[in-house]
DNA sequence: CAAATATCAGCCTCACTGAGATAT
DNA sequence: CATATCTCAGTGTGGCTGATATTT
């Protein structure tokens, strides 16, 4: 018997248990709980990680581009970038080539911070998927990617 | 060329694309958009469907039990049951055997309404998963169930 | 002029918390 | 007394909308 276990939640009705959208939502809730807990000590949020990851991979970008590749709304990109600039993790300057845009850049401490968040999030993934074998986890990622890519 | 398509969203950075928790969250967002749209005409919400489904499968239940088997917070069960009772889809009466509890029951129109919602939601699942074969969709459901069961 | 960008103010749902009243 | 149920009031985040100023 696992002494640390919370009382087992009763089985959900079949109409929910077999509904892909319900299962997706429930597992996403669990995933968000775990990742939020993992990031709590850092003061960063999931949006912040997404923005840092995009800049690390694609280099300096406009806020609109950041929003498009991360799925974050234009309006929320503003808030995330504000917070990260204030922490010295990003730089923001007007784009000399296009007056409508800001060029957002990763600072050195931004890169460091990204690595830190990345390690914490990878730990949370293991917690989340510990019931699956590595091959099964990969299958899950592949299937989810295909669903996601056909929005 | 698909004339109805929205401009393809650019690829997400690898750090997100390969992060199970991010993929889960993104697909859950898509799933919720589709199901909310499917239910919009009915005036019912996802919580309402969950409560109706639980009562249909398990019979008359207390609100606490409804919350446990659907994963809905005690506090939100109150609101959902209020709304459904007001629409005549549920009955609520004190439990003669335990004065702390209400016994919530499905009415005849509650059963009808459940079937209606069920059909709409099944349609939304097809939209959501149209990129997968039936076997792949089943694999996805199995993997998500195993992740969900080990919270 | 039409389209794109950045920003702001604000909305709504959902998941969740804390506290109180009642009953076991 | 400790625990369980129901209810209410309220919080915070996330995803999203609409409008505006500016630029292309």
Annotation field: number of helices of chain A = 7
Give the chain pair forming the largest contact, with residue counts.
A-B, 62 and 62 residues
Main β sheet profile of chain A: 2 strands, antiparallel
Count of beta strands of chain A: 2
Helix amount of chain A: 55-70%
Radius of gyration of CA atoms of chain A, rounded to a whole number: 19 Å
Class of secondary structure makeup of chain A: mainly alpha
Oligomeric grouping of the chains:
homodimer
Spatial ordering of strands, largest sheet of chain A:
1-2
Dominant shape of chain A:
elongated
Q: What is the succession of H and E elements of chain A?
A: HHHHHEEHH
Taken as a percent bin, the fraction of beta residues of chain A is 5-15%
Weakly predicted, low-confidence segments of chain A = none
Average residue-wise pLDDT of chain A: 95
Alpha carbon gap, first and last residue of chain A: 43 Å
Give structural notes:
2 copies of one chain form a homodimer. Chain A has helices at residues 14-17, 20-40, 46-58, 63-70, 74-86, 108-128, 134-149, and strands at residues 90-94, 102-106. Chain A has 151 residues and is mostly helical. A two-stranded antiparallel sheet of chain A has the order 1-2. Chains A and B meet through helix 1, helix 2, helix 3, helix 4 and helix 6 of A and helix 1, helix 2, helix 3, helix 4 and helix 6 of B. Chain A binds a DNA duplex (24 and 24 nucleotides) through helix 2 and helix 5.
